[in-house]
């Protein structure tokens, strides 16, 4: 970017102060460097992010410190932690850069067919397992030259991963969404029981006594052996035995085959042939709450045309 005059942080300054600003010393690249440093908390990582040398980034930090009369970032262990001054101006810097990008610089119209960039999608284990192939096919059908990056996230870390990996959107069961994001429900997922009829001797439909009388396999993302279902069983005077837990849905299909085990799984997972082959599916003997698969993206995203296309495409692919 060329050096341009830019009002950086001018709140509370009068006209006389404005006219005394050394506009030649203010460079838009300094604000970009500040944002990269705030994001990465490292001079070397910020330099890599902006595709410049570490010495160039260090020089930009020195200029920023002189311009704003503040250290801005101080080393704490291996990280460069922002000062109070840096944190206070961060929202203004983001607004200035967003204003320039979206209101002043006019990006070229987005064209899916000729797009050669990367679509970065954060996705939870289950959503990736079920939908990644469908989303990839839908993307490459409309944008044959696109690159697709699926990044694993969970309900706890998706906000941090969104920033670090510069994601376009996130897909999954994400109940706690803060006001930095917009969200759209894609669908409600229900549950079924899967088991090997020959190994268990069960045939649908199964009673609650049969449900509780056979060892259970449990997909447990947090490693816990009990869920809300166990509390509901207790109110009915029933109890199940969870004999094995796994944090990965891919394990369950092979684990159930030929073994005296039953497992509650999301319905769409049970429809995937290499999971369900040789297994029997039936409704649970007790009501199991549905869960919501949502799509989440950052408010005020920079490339709205690309994002709108991506949101529409993912919605269609998932809701088929």
Question: Secondary-structure map with pairings?
Answer:
Layout (H helix, E strand, L loop, with lengths): L14 H5 L8 H13 L2 H8 L3 H15 L4 E4 L2 E4 L1 H21 L13 E6 L1 H18 L4 E6 L5 H8 L3 E4 L8 E9 L1 E5 L1 H4 L7 H5 L3 E4 L8 H8 L6 E5 L2 H8 L5 E5 H4 L2 H4 L3 E3 L8 E8 L5 H15 L2
Parallel strand pairs: 3-4, 3-5, 8-9, 8-10
Antiparallel strand pairs: 1-2, 5-12, 6-12, 7-10, 7-11
Describe this structure in words.
The protein is an alpha/beta fold. It folds into three domains: 15-104, Arc Repressor Mutant, subunit A (Orthogonal Bundle); 118-184 and 292-318, Periplasmic binding protein-like II (D-Maltodextrin-Binding Protein, domain 2); 191-289, 3-Layer(aba) Sandwich (D-Maltodextrin-Binding Protein, domain 2). It contains 14 helices and twelve strands. The protein has helices spanning 15-19, 28-40, 43-50, 54-68, 84-104, 125-142, 158-165, 197-200, 208-212, 228-235, 249-256, 267-270, 273-276, 304-318, and strands at residues 73-76, 79-82, 118-123, 147-152, 169-172, 181-189, 191-195, 216-219, 242-246, 262-266, 280-282, 291-298. Helix 2 crosses helix 3 (43-50), helix 2 (28-40) crosses helix 4 and helix 3 packs across helix 4 (54-68). It is elongated, with a radius of gyration of 26 Å. Residues 1-19 have low confidence and may be disordered.
């Amino acid at each position: 970017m060329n050096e341009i005059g830019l009002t950086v942080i001018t709140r509370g300054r009068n006209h006389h102060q404005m006219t005394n600003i050394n506009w030649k010393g203010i460079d838009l690249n300094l604000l970009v460097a500040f944002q990269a440093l705030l994001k990465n908390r490292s001079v070397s990582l910020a330099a890599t992010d902006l595709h410049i040398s570490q010495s160039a980034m260090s020089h930009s930090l020195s200029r920023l410190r002189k311009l704003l009369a503040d250290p801005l970032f101080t080393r704490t262990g291996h990280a460069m932690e922002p000062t109070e001054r840096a944190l206070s101006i961060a929202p203004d810097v983001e607004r200035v850069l967003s204003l320039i990008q979206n209101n002043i610089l006019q990006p070229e119209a987005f064209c899916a067919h000729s797009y050669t960039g990367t679509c970065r999608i954060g996705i939870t284990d289950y959503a990736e397992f079920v939908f990644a192939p469908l989303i990839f096919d839908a993307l490459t059908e409309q944008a044959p030259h696109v690159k697709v990056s699926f990044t694993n996230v969970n309900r706890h870390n998706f906000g941090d991963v969104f920033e670090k990996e510069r994601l376009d959107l996130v897909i999954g069961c994400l109940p706690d969404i803060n006001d930095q994001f917009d969200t759209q429900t894609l669908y409600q997922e229900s549950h079924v029981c899967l088991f090997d009829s020959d190994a268990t001797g069960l045939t649908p439909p199964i009673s609650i006594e049969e449900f509780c009388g056979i060892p259970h396999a449990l997909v447990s993302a947090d490693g816990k052996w009990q869920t809300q279902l166990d509390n509901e069983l207790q109110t009915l005077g029933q109890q199940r035995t969870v004999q094995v837990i796994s944090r990965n849905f891919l394990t369950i299909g092979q684990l159930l085959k030929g073994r005296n085990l039953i497992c509650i799984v999301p319905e769409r997972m049970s429809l995937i042939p290499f999971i369900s082959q040789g297994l029997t599916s039936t409704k649970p003997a007790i009501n199991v709450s549905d869960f919501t698969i949502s799509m989440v993206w950052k408010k005020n995203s920079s490339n709205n045309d690309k994002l709108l296309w991506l949101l529409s495409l993912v919605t269609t692919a998932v809701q088929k």
